[in-house]
Design brief:
- The protein is α+β, with helices and mostly antiparallel strands and about 250 residues long.
- The protein is built from 3 helices and 14 strands.
- The strands form 3 sheets. Strands 1, 2, 5, 6, 7, 8, 11, 12, 13 and 14 form a 10-stranded antiparallel beta sheet that branches. The chain has a two-stranded antiparallel ribbon with strand order 3-4.
- Strand 6 and strand 7 form a beta hairpin.
- About 20% of the residues are buried.
């Protein structure tokens, strides 16, 4: 005869099944909580390693970041590059970097800000790059764009020397021009040390001393127009043209 289950036995089986199902759901929930909780825990932990000082790199940071402690009194200034070493001098993307856009002697740059980074003075250029202050950078008192030429009047077999930047005592002679030569110029500079020079269209520097030349240049205004020479300039030119040539021969060229 078939055994008939007692009502109590069937109730016990249903209770065991429900208990097993609840236990399984609790295990699944615990596993999910563990997985997501551990993932969140790892996301909040970052190993930085030992502290190592490295140059600031714009490739790893926001390009709008300013690295310098600014000099609030600084005004936009033109800079002249000078005395570039054999291994080069560079405008870099961020202070502390050693390579960037290579610069050359006599190059003119526009500095829009000045400040310190790790105790050293740096200039921020108009194009966003940086150059360190020092023996390779000469701030200018003025920079004037010109159009015209210089007529060389100095009579000498050695001529009037051309230089790679505005320093007439440095070992920076690049060539010479001679009496009768007409030298096209593009600008005139005055350094903060008081040295003045014309910049030729070829990028060389030449004296502004009227003992060696006549000045036939005009200032180029920002709007592209040229201002007329002042009466004083014309008078100086006329006086130079009537100088005693024998006296000029006794002078030393710049």
């Amino acid at each position: 005869m078939r055994h008939m289950e007692e009502p109590g036995e069937e109730s016990n089986k249903v209770g065991a099944s429900m208990l097993s199902m609840v236990f399984s759901l609790l295990l699944v929930a615990a596993a999910l909580i563990f997985v997501f909780g551990f993932k969140h825990y790892l996301a909040r932990r970052t190993y930085t390693g030992p502290k190592v000082e490295t140059p600031v790199s714009v490739a790893e940071s926001d390009t709008s970041t300013e690295y310098l402690e600014m000099d609030a009194t600084f005004k936009t200034t033109m800079l002249m590059i000078k005395n570039v070493p054999k291994d080069g001098f560079y405008a870099v993307e961020a202070p502390g970097e050693t390579k960037g856009r290579r610069l050359k002697n006599g190059q003119i740059l526009e500095a829009v800000q000045k400040g310190t980074w790790q105790g050293k003075i740096w200039y921020r250029l108009k194009d966003g790059r940086y150059v360190p202050a020092g023996s390779n950078v000469q701030p200018l008192e003025s920079y004037t764009r010109l159009k015209g030429y210089l007529a060389i009047t100095y009579i000498s077999s050695s001529g009037v020397r051309l230089r790679s930047w505005a320093d007439f005592k440095a070992d920076n002679v690049t060539g010479a021009v001679y009496v009768g030569d007409k030298v096209p110029v593009s600008a005139k500079v005055v350094t903060q040390g008081g040295v003045s020079a014309f910049i030729t269209e070829d990028g060389d520097y030449i004296t502004t001393d009227s003992r060696y030349l006549n000045d036939y240049t005009e200032v180029v205004e920002d709007d592209g127009k040229q201002s007329e020479k002042s009466e004083a300039d014309e008078k100086d030119t006329e006086e130079t043209q009537t100088k005693d040539k024998n006296t000029e021969k006794t002078e030393s060229p710049e």
